[in-house]
Sequence to fold (263 residues):
Amino acid sequence: MNPILIGTSWKMNKTLAQALSFSETLCQQMSGITSKIQPFIIPPFTCVRDVTTYLNRNHIHCLTGVQNMHFADSGAYTGEISPLMVKDCGAIMVELGHSERREYFGETDACIALKVQAALRHQLRPLICIGDSQQEKQWGCSKEVVIRQLKAALSLAPAEQAKNIIIAYEPIWAIGENGTPATPQQAQEVHYALRQTLNTLFGNTVSQSIPLLYGGSVNPENCLSLLSEINIDGLFIGRSAWHADGFCHILRLINDSLTVSPT
Fold:
């Protein structure tokens, strides 16, 4: 059984001092968290190496990642970070395709597919973000939109490396300060469609090894009900986890639910 992935991306937040303070609190509060839960954090580029080193030095089993990367190994791409640089700073994961990257930086499905391919080529775990807009939800085409995004992102991914992929469904209408979280039933319906798509692309065995995370206004009040759905394998948390105490609170809630569960 795959561990439950629970993580957060800090976006363009936290100085190095703030990042290390978060890491220190995480180290203090991680005691007793079951290995059935796999935490991860995705800091800004400037903090990744230091946060990774700090967590590893303190033997904290928390993965780290970066929020973007280029698909080329090197070259005249001013301001970009290569897969080799990501690996060099100790990160395991790379967040790709976030709606903010698509909207503000013009990232296309084709560009994201190249980045996914590059991540897998360098043994990084791509965390592929997909999501529908409020208008697409109102039009009733949410599933069609995210399935198209999923297929496009995976179009260059070798089948033998697909098990290293992570998918995060983040409806655009659910993220941000004014977002409204999807109900567990809404999220499950989309996740089921995504799982069926993965079955078609890679077969059932590989499909079941690919974690499907939900992200979008996840908080202590809804985290357990979301995880109760069969096709929700983890949570990609926003502002509720930007403070270490909040992140650890959600981790403990999930940990306690697993402790009392008969399974």
Remarks:
- The first strand starts at residue 4 and ends at 9.
